[in-house]
Amino acid sequence: MNKGIRFFEIGEQIEQYFLIKSSTKGIASNGKPFLTLILQDKTGEIEAKLWDATEEDELRYTDQTIIKIQGDVQSFRGKQQLRVRKIRPLMEQEQIPIDYFIERAPLEIEEMQSKINEYIFEMTNPNIQRITRYLLKKFETKFYEYPAATKNHHEFYSGLAFHVVSMLDIAKSLVSLYPQLNKDLLYAGIILHDLGKVIELSGPVSASYTLEGTLLGHITIIVEEIGKAAEQLEIEGEEVVVLQHMVLAHHGKAEWGSPKPPMIREAEVLHFIDNLDAKITMINRALDKTKPGEFSERVFALDNRSFYKPSFQD
Amino acid sequence: MNKGIRFFEIGEQIEQYFLIKSSTKGIASNGKPFLTLILQDKTGEIEAKLWDATEEDELRYTDQTIIKIQGDVQSFRGKQQLRVRKIRPLMEQEQIPIDYFIERAPLEIEEMQSKINEYIFEMTNPNIQRITRYLLKKFETKFYEYPAATKNHHEFYSGLAFHVVSMLDIAKSLVSLYPQLNKDLLYAGIILHDLGKVIELSGPVSASYTLEGTLLGHITIIVEEIGKAAEQLEIEGEEVVVLQHMVLAHHGKAEWGSPKPPMIREAEVLHFIDNLDAKITMINRALDKTKPGEFSERVFALDNRSFYKPSFQD
Amino acid sequence: MNKGIRFFEIGEQIEQYFLIKSSTKGIASNGKPFLTLILQDKTGEIEAKLWDATEEDELRYTDQTIIKIQGDVQSFRGKQQLRVRKIRPLMEQEQIPIDYFIERAPLEIEEMQSKINEYIFEMTNPNIQRITRYLLKKFETKFYEYPAATKNHHEFYSGLAFHVVSMLDIAKSLVSLYPQLNKDLLYAGIILHDLGKVIELSGPVSASYTLEGTLLGHITIIVEEIGKAAEQLEIEGEEVVVLQHMVLAHHGKAEWGSPKPPMIREAEVLHFIDNLDAKITMINRALDKTKPGEFSERVFALDNRSFYKPSFQD
Amino acid sequence: MNKGIRFFEIGEQIEQYFLIKSSTKGIASNGKPFLTLILQDKTGEIEAKLWDATEEDELRYTDQTIIKIQGDVQSFRGKQQLRVRKIRPLMEQEQIPIDYFIERAPLEIEEMQSKINEYIFEMTNPNIQRITRYLLKKFETKFYEYPAATKNHHEFYSGLAFHVVSMLDIAKSLVSLYPQLNKDLLYAGIILHDLGKVIELSGPVSASYTLEGTLLGHITIIVEEIGKAAEQLEIEGEEVVVLQHMVLAHHGKAEWGSPKPPMIREAEVLHFIDNLDAKITMINRALDKTKPGEFSERVFALDNRSFYKPSFQD
Amino acid sequence: MNKGIRFFEIGEQIEQYFLIKSSTKGIASNGKPFLTLILQDKTGEIEAKLWDATEEDELRYTDQTIIKIQGDVQSFRGKQQLRVRKIRPLMEQEQIPIDYFIERAPLEIEEMQSKINEYIFEMTNPNIQRITRYLLKKFETKFYEYPAATKNHHEFYSGLAFHVVSMLDIAKSLVSLYPQLNKDLLYAGIILHDLGKVIELSGPVSASYTLEGTLLGHITIIVEEIGKAAEQLEIEGEEVVVLQHMVLAHHGKAEWGSPKPPMIREAEVLHFIDNLDAKITMINRALDKTKPGEFSERVFALDNRSFYKPSFQD
Amino acid sequence: MNKGIRFFEIGEQIEQYFLIKSSTKGIASNGKPFLTLILQDKTGEIEAKLWDATEEDELRYTDQTIIKIQGDVQSFRGKQQLRVRKIRPLMEQEQIPIDYFIERAPLEIEEMQSKINEYIFEMTNPNIQRITRYLLKKFETKFYEYPAATKNHHEFYSGLAFHVVSMLDIAKSLVSLYPQLNKDLLYAGIILHDLGKVIELSGPVSASYTLEGTLLGHITIIVEEIGKAAEQLEIEGEEVVVLQHMVLAHHGKAEWGSPKPPMIREAEVLHFIDNLDAKITMINRALDKTKPGEFSERVFALDNRSFYKPSFQD
């Protein structure tokens, strides 16, 4: 039915559904108010101007609403812009799956829940297991809906949980190759390491930073939560401070946001796995858009490198 | 009565009291055990060897005991060493003030308590005031006895409280010069900023790092304590996260141990005052041992600089 | 009478006085000359185009002239622009206080002079006092009119003197808290530290860098001036080189422009005070424009940080 | 039979076999020549002095010879030293397994050969497979005997091949988790990445750097070898330059010795796996010598960090 | 006849020859195709739009074609643009020397050849001489046509050879001042150091990077070529690895692209000469466009510095 | 007659002249005073102990005295030490050329004077010429005797002038290769660039830093001297500030001690020549002590690199 925004061409007439990512009011040279709408679907974003906007329009076309637009794709200063002919809100009887508008993890929440629960089930140290289970339960809904970041990688719906599941799978294979690794610590560290993001970020979609997120950061937030959980569960063993350290150190270095570098073997491995999953994910995404025999666009978070897709790669 | 260790000269015979800073057992070439004692008084340290040490000696001459030695000051590989003729523990009736052996803050604990309480009393925001008072009370004894560090500056008995008092005095004068500063935040930040040291360090004298101190650090420790205090006191205002940020950011930069840089005006000022008091204290100490017209020894924590005492300085 | 530029709104008609910050000639597509005027008052700047400019216009509407304009506020590429209907130079009988057009220090020159003279009066070392007084006298007029910088902080009329006065006040309170500090050195260092700016910069308003300023910098300039002053006054004591060092080292580190780091206690303190006054001033300015509960704009010179104004701040 | 050097105690008499790690001639104060022998077995090293050494001794007791010594363990300047009573070379009939003297990989060469051949067998791209097989064959003996480094990790007999096998195992599990990865490239890159070490280093035991190793380094050496192999095998596809890049980039950054950063996905992953195996190996070794509840010695190659072994770790 | 592009003025009508640097197709708002042509001559570049471009136009006006245009110089968004009235390809009988369109080295190829051959002739070590001669011969045509870089310095036709000649002349005078320098090594190193650019870059004009250039870089490329040349010439002496090192190390530091720093005296000197010629060339170019008493534009490759041309400089 | 210290062997008896580099009094275990003498000749240094030193000895054997010693070369803690049998001061009739004891430049002072005067004579700008001549005359004696540094390179008698002469010779050849260079500026900059060392350092032999040298540095010192010279000579042209900049910028970067980077072409070239002469000199010295086919000792000031002397180097 609908053609994705990324595939729009100048001159084309379209009629389809969009999610309003942001709606901002402005005043035109003629003194009349207008709305600048950033419209999104899963494939991209496009700007649209709604001229001579009424007060009703302002109330109706707010952030995160779904609308239907009929219009023309035009060019403005080298970028595409949508000229709106008709616009209306979604009607009650219309059912557009949210997947149409936003990117989400390739696994269903239930699958991820079942995998993570299995990993927790495998733990043998009761203190570590109880703290992990307690905190996961405390923030469960958000954990399975939030992204892992606002940009770069896993910045989509359920991205946080999906990142954790991928990391757990890597951890499992490393545990079998290096049997000295403490499985409980490593699994718990992975599950908790970014859990503070459910407080640091504002929501599952188009997330921004909360005040607590900006002033304290997700690492500090979850370290405090582990402390409170231990108090609540009346756990006093060394596991508490060790788990807090796992999370505290997972950025690897002070200048990357970890006030203490990893001083536990599993903390070092956690830092590695986190990095590895993030980097492969970013490179895969860049190469998905690249033809064999060509270089990808530059990836800012990877030192602005461009990656080559060999021509013999099928 | 006693001559300070710093003033010992080779060839001299001495007879006086020392605090054993550390006692380590070794085995001599002849196969017999001996003790290497590091003796200290307020002016310095000297090594002594106790040859043919009995098991009783080992039990008697342990760390932090006070002893009396009669012996000769000798030279060994360019350093002074004490040749022990007689040694015995302190006898019950002997009263040696602890000040003789260790350095301590120039203010009495009572004076510092009264000054700090006055600063708390001046606060007008009840949330900030209550959290500060609660945490100070929780760790009060240790707060007034612990050093502020294990080396470099304020590493003496009551050093932590003394550092806080000096900083509060600077803060007071800045508040009067820059009236926009929020006095409550600044005073509370100063009082709490290093309070985590009472958990990070092992004790008031010859302090080393605890496990929690090594793996988490005093900043993370006290941030968590502020969170728990707020929960306990049922305080939910923005003051909690702002206070936590004040403490979190007081090292100024990620690479110096603050995962977030100051993003509150008073946090920036707190960072400054902390630095200023530490630096003036270190330079003063180096110059105290320097004659006019000469350069001091190098101060490692100040980029290994040496400071000149002008010859016109009286 | 006049509405500040910062408060102009699109569509508005205005008629008021401006200072021409810069006037640049251009050639329009129709081949005729026009002037691009950057107009300023104390609250901000706005661009105006004067089309079909005559040669007389060019001569009349030059930098730093005051003019009266009647026109309309319009929008051009997202920024405000003034469409000129009528323009004329200031007439002789019109008296517009310069404060209307430019920012200036909050203290009057006389007040600052009296404060600084008092600080000089307090000095007891005659060599330091004489050099300070001699150089201040030599550059007196400029010292009280120049800014302390071309941007970031104290970049306004009398900014240099005001920065010095604020620093002296901080110094005074530090001297009382740390009595070991040599008051004479510290006060003299503060008064002289940026005095080279009267040669480095081009003038009191809209300052740019002179050739000497660019090739040598204000630090080198004033160090040489201290040397010449001593020669002139026939002063030969160690005070000369120590004062030169105070100034030379006040940027704190080689990479910040001081070829020698502070190696005198008072030089370290001077560096601190300079930094502190600059930083508080920048943060205050950013927060003045910020509502409680919001973050300020980013401050480039403070590592591009944004500062939060707590919502409980009144 | 033999007690390892690490377990020697002062005062003990020993009689056992050693490998001479190095033998250096000196002249004693009495004008007579002596030999300083560094003796090693798998557990450690000890110094021995052979006084009044004859010319025959000099020729007999050279580097890498096995000898038998009867002597006493003594203390000299705080370190153990062996006082030699009797010394003689290994006699023909004596059979001391080389494992007694040197550390070696935990897998037999045949096992490693079979694993690596299997990985090569799995490759489907003939160009990649042929180059890999050709170069492995060219340097086969050395590849299975050389260490991977002179210190830090895998610096033992067969260390290079063992490091490669461990990396291939990690690669295999990553390939199954991230199916986009090109298995052929990744396996070939791992097998070749450090192969230049067989030219960079001097031999399988107590390796030092060759001239080529010092002036060019193992990365440049093997990149050239790949080029020559392709020429020899008359392979001209893009695989050649891509394989060369895999090796060239495996240190990850210019400052770590790779003139080009990874610009192929598999090159980035190779860099990660290399790092991961090296780091886990180093941490494991440090923790093997550490008791639960204690910190390990500092590991220089890991930013001089010390690692904690949790007390709940069995 | 022709006026250089740099000297065009708005409003002017011109009729002259250009080289098309790049030709890009676009679609106008009216849905019709157009070509954006970047036109160049030796003095600069200008953009031209060819509206309503036919398919024939597309095929005719491609990169690196010479054309004749009649049109008007206009202003568009502050930059000059050429409005095309008439356009046609170069006719067969028209002879425009290539120097008119592109910058080239100030020496003729023959002169450079003769100078370089003389330097090779002066070498006395046959191994060094043969390798140098062999490689120069192998890539001779390209060596004398390619630029030394794509931007910053010597980025013109024959720039590579000209850079080498200038460096050889400096080397000659240093050899006479420091007679310990090995002339053969230094000359050979200079001739070979950038020779890999003939593979790294795509051609003599408007060069971009080849795949080999991007993934391996000119240093690695030529090091391999030296190895192959030695094999071909059956040279086995130490000269091979030393020459490879000369080239490998010529960027001076790992972070500048040399995996090994100079460890041969002549390698250090080669690095210096390379830098010196590059820097003087860049500064000269910047100052050529600067009037006495003014500062040049900023030179990005020289830390973005601006250079002053003294007013007493004639 | 005399054998150089570097060639002493343990057990040897010697009788020869030495220069006392330093003489330090100590107190032996038996309570009697002794002198530790560091003796030097051009080839090296050796320590000698003079036991039971009388007060007369102390006065007689002070720094920089020449003495004659008869004694034995012994070994103490792995280093050679001289056991003194007889010692006496130099007698009046004994004539030992100073070259025997200290290293000095390979050119005579007169030769250097004549070369430098010739370079000054070649200058055509009278302002530059007069300032250079004036300052050279002002510090002439010291300029021809002082070293250029206290260690690393040119740290010998007349080292400063010799360094300047070598640099002038390089400059001369660069001026002929790059005719745009302003000869006057370059020559004057070279002659003046390190002239401040005659105030920064304490003397021509065994130099240490003066107070002015430590607090201001030779760059600041000479910049001020240029300013005073111009005042004295009543020169006011732009040459003054340009010459000051040449000297100010000759360390190239702020972190290397130049508060301004080179912003004049000749300043950049001066920085280069300074570096080049220093580096070649250091490498030559290291290689002089190295056999062909071996690596030199590490050179600290060259990033601690070791240099290889090729085996084909004669």
SSE inventory with pairings:
Six copies of one chain form a homohexamer.
Chain A: E1 13-27, E2 33-41, E3 44-50, H1 55-60, E4 66-76, E5 79-89, H2 109-122, H3 126-138, H4 140-145, H5 159-177, H6 183-193, H7 197-200, H8 211-215, H9 217-233, H10 239-248, H11 265-288, E6 294-295, E7 308-309
Parallel strand pairs in A: 3-5
Antiparallel strand pairs in A: 1-2, 1-4, 2-3, 4-5, 6-7
Helix pairs in contact in A: 2-5, 2-6, 3-6, 3-9, 5-6, 5-11, 6-10, 6-11, 9-10
Polypeptide structure, described:
Chain A is of the alpha+beta class. In chain A, 41% of the residues lie in helices and 18% in strands. Chain A has eleven helices and seven strands. Chain A has a five-stranded mixed beta barrel with strand order 1-2-3-5-4. In chain A, strand 4 (66-76) and strand 5 (79-89) form a beta hairpin. In chain A, helix 3 (126-138) runs parallel beside helix 6 (183-193), helix 6 (183-193) packs across helix 11 and helix 9 packs antiparallel against helix 10. The longest helix of chain A is centred in the C-terminal third of the chain and has 24 residues, at 265-288. The two termini of chain A are 30 Å apart. Chains in contact: A-B, A-C, A-D, A-E, B-C, B-D, B-F, C-E, C-F, D-E, D-F, E-F. The A-D interface holds A 125, 127, 166, 169-170, 173-174, 177-178, 180-182, 185, 237-239, 242, 261-265, 268-269, 272, 275-276, 279-280, 283-284, 287, 295, 302-303, 305-308, 310-313 and D 125, 127, 166, 169-170, 173-174, 177-178, 180-182, 185, 237-239, 242, 261-265, 268-269, 272, 275-276, 279-280, 283-284, 287, 295, 302-303, 305-308, 310-313.
